[in-house]
Amino acid sequence: MSNGSASRPSIYEKMTISNDSKEADISAKTQSFNYFESVYSPEITANLIFLDASGSVKAEKNQDVQERLGSIKSSLPIIGEEKLTFKVSSKSGTLNFSQKPLLVTTSPVISEDSNRQSVFLSLVSKPGIDNEQIKNASILYKGKISDTVKKILTESNIVDIDIDPTRNNYDFISRSRGSLDLITDLCRRSIPESGDPGYFFYETQDGHNFKAIDNLISEEPVETYTYTGGFKANSETDENDFKIVRPPIFLKDQNVKQRKKWISSRNIFFNPSNLVTEELFYALKGSGDADRSGTPVQKTLGRKTLDYAIPLLKYMKTNFHVLDIGSLDYQNLDPNNDPREWQAKSPMRYNLLHSQMMEIQVPCNLNIRAGNVIKVVIERQGDDKELGGFDEHVSGKYLILHLCHHFDTERSFTSMTLARDTYGLHTKN
To answer: Domain 11-126 adopts which CATH fold?
Structure first.
């Protein structure tokens, strides 16, 4: 492997499409390849464009000659659920799906001439296909949520899993829903052993993850990326590997109109088991009303706790809930298993996490995953550049919500959507 810039084109060590009887090597035919992970997606997705011509399919000797000499699209043929096995290497690592191929979902021809055609493939990991299969049984799941998640994944033959234990139970009936849908639905209902409600269920190249938000943001940054306003496109050194190659795009920054959803809430609960209505308040620590405020957010991507000297009632939002008691058993007897906690606090945790969001593009780094924390250092720009140092309002730790590894014939890079809950606070650690 070359020691040149991580932005250089990566190497397709393997790029093969196959069905049960035939296969075709498209490594030399691939024009572009995009690989996606997201903390909001329990499946990996990808897409690619390849040039298709005649005579590219390996087949049995007794196969019809015309079929063997046809294009990949027509003679394999590509009709859906074909396997794409690939191994892509770059300066930063390897993306290896030789043993767990992605499956084709769509394969339109996007352009063609007399001799060849360009074919676009949409791809998804196998659990994403299996999830859509018809389920004939309604199963009762009982007990601790994290145990239920492990049981569902094991029953679905998903073995590469990383699960954060929960402290609360939830009993429910599956009602013929797919396994990925079931677990995704449990995320907002889950409370970690230490911390506040709210989980993500997602797949990376390492496998499936059921992770508490508080635990994810407690991790140390895996990389630090810097934006200085300049990028040496032809550099053959390591200098550029951890630089942001384009100006960051700021998607959200301290939306005051949204704070009422994040800082405090008034919650009206209707209990269908006894027809009783009750009122509960939840607010961030330091929100201005100690008598009414709880502490639903204990961990952040900056300071240890969020602390705002903002009057509670100024941003009060009222939410109406039907108390979610799961299946037939009423689950509100144990204080550690109170559904009111996650019903009120989970929306605050998810919304707060998206307080600041940005998109960045960096040289290809196959060692990072969705769900990792990275540190971003953005130097002062414009009139403030003379002051030196970093911009404390946008620099700091961020959680990777979504990432895309892009490969084409000229370059490779990684794009990320980042989020954090610290309203511009920056810490040196």
So the answer is: Thrombin, subunit H (2.40.10)
